[in-house]
Amino acid sequence: VLIPISLYVSIELVKLGQVFFLHSDLDLYDEETDLSIQCRALNITEDLGQIQYIFSDKTGTLTENKMVFRRCTIMGSEYCHQENAKRLETQKELDSDSEEWTQYQCLSFPARWAQGPAMMRSQRGAHPLRRSQSVRVPMQGHSRQRSVGRCESSQPPVAFSSSVEKDVTPDKNLLTKVRDSALWLETSSDARPAKPSHSTTSSIADFFLALTICNSVMVSTTTEPRRRVTIPPSNKALGTSLEKIQHLFQRLKLLSLSQSFSSTAPSDADLGESLEPNVPTMDSDEKDDTSVGSGECSTDGGYRSSIWEQGDILGSDSGASLEEGLETPVLGLAGPELCYEAESPDEAALVHAAHAYSFTLVSRTPEQVTVRLPQGTCLTFDLLFTLGFDSVRKRMSVVVRHPLTGEIIVYTKGADSVIMDLLEDPACVTDINVEKKLKKIQARTQKHLDLYARDGLRTLCIAKKVVSEEDFQRWVSFRREAEAALDNRDELLMETAQHLENQLTLLGATGIEDRLQEGVPDTIAALREAGIQLWVLTGDKQETAVNIAYSCRLLDQADTVYSINTESQETCESILNCALEEVKQFHEPQKQDRKLFGFRPPSKTSSTTSAMVPEVGLVIDGKALNAIFQGQLEKKFLELTQYCRSVLCCRSTPLQKSMIVKLVRDKLSVMTLSIGDGANDVSMIQAADIGIGIAGQEGMQAVMSSDFAISRFKHLKKLLLVHGHWCYSRLARMVVYYFYKNVCYVNLLFWYQFFCGFSGSTMIDYWQMIFFNLFFTSLPPIIFGVLDKDVSAETLLALPELYKSGQNSECYNTMTFWISMLDAFYQSLVCFFIPYLTYKDSDIDVFTFGTPVNTISLITILLHQAMEMKTW
């Protein structure tokens, strides 16, 4: 039997052993997340050594996915947050300290904890959760006293909890304006000074309210689960006159203002540090026993009743002023710690940024969301509708009812490429001054967005819209019909969202930093030297993605970069033709060499001529990709990418990512690998030959759909260059050896047929033939396939070019196969005819002749195995 069943069994056992040693590699273990590599597919380990194209996500894959608020622009005014930038630089230096030194401080200097617990918090790193993305935020006010000598690391680890992520140093200029906007917001409508609809003061308040409200962040405390507080309207008569209520309110508010406008450093860092309300979770039967100052939520149906009231003093009396909508802070009460559970680190970063300016998210239920303002008062908004984020709309919206004005407001945040197209046209405004102001604000904001993107920051635009009651009820009816539709439901839902999310008023934009992971540039450089092409498929803004590409050495400053940013098929085809004509002038000889010899073009270090040729990079956005797929331009697109060292696809949807992977895999017939960390990368991971998921901050969807799971992008270097090379080399050589040993052994019986008249008889005992594959030659090939190392790990990492042997199938191809077969024929001749010539003309029986033949062949086959082994 040339291909015995033992070969299949041995291959499965070898792959199982390779997976075991993959799991045992400490270099693929991440101490911060306490995760090692996971092999979820046991039958494709050899494919790791033949990868030619890698498709990678950016956020969370190349970057840490630890979002840090850096800058913002509001109504055309940019706030650079220089103090926050300095703090981040200092924090980076602290992060470079070893974990052993931090633990030594915790054990050796307990007295320092009592003097400065914030110092210990700044040194404590983030501990990402696998599923629950939560953030622990202390409520402002009197913080809990920790016992001296207690290490804070004993607290349960939560995601997004490092000081780098949640601590934001406010900009001094913006801080002053926030105070003014908070005063304006908390002033009753009668006493509030008249402000135009596009005033900076009102827009600043709306901007931070949007950051706090327009998200899916859920809030709970360390002692209480998140639940809605429902208290029926109280029938208890008022025991205090309105004059006393007004006097108490003014006295508490003056005290709040005096501490908020203090010139001390703590007040600048956090407005109203010691004026924070207690957020109770009380049942309705506890209301009568509540003393003055206990905050309660009243939900009797109206928008005024959804605001926080002052215990039993502020009731539902019709003579009360609008100041009932503000809960007065309670002094001397320690509030519980809040736990923020965010779906993504972007939302957590924005909530922390608003918290730094004392716009704090206090609670969220399916019907209500409560925000604490800088002076400690709380507003509870009725949450009327939520339009979640999706990759097609690229935005999220919430519809709320303002507790003070009763207005129905739509807060929207999303990609600038989408939000800027949904803004109200300034030309439609009747007031010329307002028209000029709107145009100026939009132009300045776009300029700031481009600046943020060039700095590598992730950008989001914030906008709002006021909807009338009639229009909203009409839209709700339209939405309900779309949700109940059986045909074209997705299209109808998209249409309803577009109907609501238009004619928006721009409030501002944010810039969030997402730093590169450690070792990413070195990993990309090594993979490129190994002959692997790396494509980055991201949904980020083009300028942001290009900046990250230069930072991680995906692109070089000396490269010639072609950009395709058009949705016109004719324009896209013209750009592709022009780019192909230009690159062929320099790269055509290399392409001919590749066609002639079957190898990749030589690298720029291989010859003087190639060193003079500039490398080519390609940047393309989602609109251009649509034009390519719809205009049958895939062939020209792939031809151009053959000359590019790197390809960067920006603003791409999950569907486009999977289409690109399938296009390259099917049309070029190459081995592909996709790597990502989020749910939007699942389709790309499943489309590739090998899918790798990163266990990061965005859940486990990518890991669950992957073949291998790692915790850091840098682990890809050793996984491919070392383990991939070893797995392919071992398995390929083991398969060749299996064919060799079976051909060699079976040919012994073939040569004997010439002397027995082709009767089919054998000179070897049947038990010996059975034991040949079952015992004699079964274990050595398995050990060879699991443990052999043709090249050491250090050499493979130092010389990534050795990985090309797997790409070119040098260990198992037509030539190596037939050479092994000829060798097997030759050795079988020697093993048969030496005993034959020795016992010629003797009277020995057939089995006596077969025993030395079997012994010599067995020794020869095992010695051949020993010679093939590179590691002893």
From TrEMBL:
Ranges annotated as biased composition (Polar residues): 152-163
Protein location: Endoplasmic reticulum membrane; Membrane
Record-listed Mg(2+) binding positions: 57, 59, 677, 681
Main localization (coarse): endoplasmic reticulum
Matches recorded under InterPro entries: ATPase_P-typ_cyto_dom_N (IPR023299), ATPase_P-typ_P_site (IPR018303), ATPase_P-typ_TM_dom_sf (IPR023298), HAD-like_sf (IPR036412), HAD_sf (IPR023214), P-type_ATPase_IV (IPR006539), P_typ_ATPase (IPR001757), P_typ_ATPase_c (IPR032630)
TM segment ranges: 735-754, 766-787, 817-839, 846-867
Family, similarity comment: Belongs to the cation transport ATPase (P-type) (TC 3.A.3) family. Type IV subfamily.
Record-given protein name: Phospholipid-transporting ATPase
